[in-house]
Amino acid sequence: LSASVENAASDANTFHGIVITHPERVIDPSSGLTKLDIARYYDAVAPFILPYLKDRPVYLLRSPGGLSGKAFFQRHAIRAAIPGIQLLDPSVDPEHEPLMVINSAQALIGAAQMGSLELHSCNATADMLDRPDCMVFDLDPDPNLPWKRIAESAKLTRQLLDELGLTCFLKTSGSKGLHLIVPLARRHDWESVTQFSKALAQHLANTIPGHFIASMGEENRVGKIYIDYLRNSKMASTVVPYSTRARNGLPVAVPIAWEELDDIKGSAMWNIVSIQERLVRQKSDPWQDFFSTRQILTKSMRKALGII
Ligand code: ATP
Ligand code: MN
Ligand code: MN
After folding, report:
1. Beta strands 58-62 and 116-121, pairing class
2. Which of 32, 112, 185, 293 matches a 20 to 30 Å C-alpha distance to 123?
3. What pTM value is reported for the model?
4. How far apart are CA 21 and CA 3, in angstroms?
5. What ipTM is given for this predicted complex?
6. How far is the centre of ligand 3, averaged over its atoms, from the C-alpha of 191 (Å)?
């Protein structure tokens, strides 16, 4: 290789000053997508994903060897530093190595360089970890359930939230189910959000038992959807919008508008390639009002759910 060809090659593998090593490594054998494809993806979607990562502790599902390699879930910084990553003051989570935050495109690429295949975040920001800023309903279907039933269940959950006076936002998990996110003002502690979400899940399971179950365990889930409200606790996490998933085809979690739900064919409808077309074409952000929506869980809502 001449020096100029070599330089061109290394430029193509460098994003925000971070060199992607083993760019040609196949991460997903089913599609042939490589580590470089993932880095390019995160480079392209940085403006879309960074607002959802901003100031939140992030957990990484890393699998440097790709989907057929050994994966591990990393909640705290470890010795091999991730380039660009921000570390929180150890007092935020004592007795552990510092929590991590991705607040820049460089850190995002750094995470990709370190073999991250999924980004999960806390439902609270680092400066106020005791006050969640959203409540999450993670709809976990029996894997044999037709997609229509999953979509219908999301609508039913939204209907109940609507009746209570709460706006919720919808996203595909990029895997099997759907996530409904209720933005909150940072007023409530975890205990009250857990209690509220549990009561809501139980209300759905009691009133529409053909669709929902509010208790864990695969055996309970046959023909139904488990409304997983356990995301609503301090160190729990939810996959970040636009994160890749460590699954065949490298699907991504995608924020969608409620009006789109009937056209969605499955949770893994978009992958790191097809989502880019959607983002280029999309005229408005389906979660346009997400960051300006700040809701309070009121006494009358609690009453309606039978908590008080
Ligand atoms: P699906 O649509 O298949 O349910 P999901 O992202 O909702 O996809 P769940 O199994 O419901 O997946 O997981 C809920 C959350 O648990 C994840 O979003 C993530 O934050 C957390 N989680 C995922 N993997 C791990 C892990 N290996 N260890 C601990 N927590 C994890
Ligand atoms: Mn789920
Ligand atoms: Mn779940």
Report:
1. antiparallel
2. 112
3. 0.95
4. 19
5. 0.93
6. 19
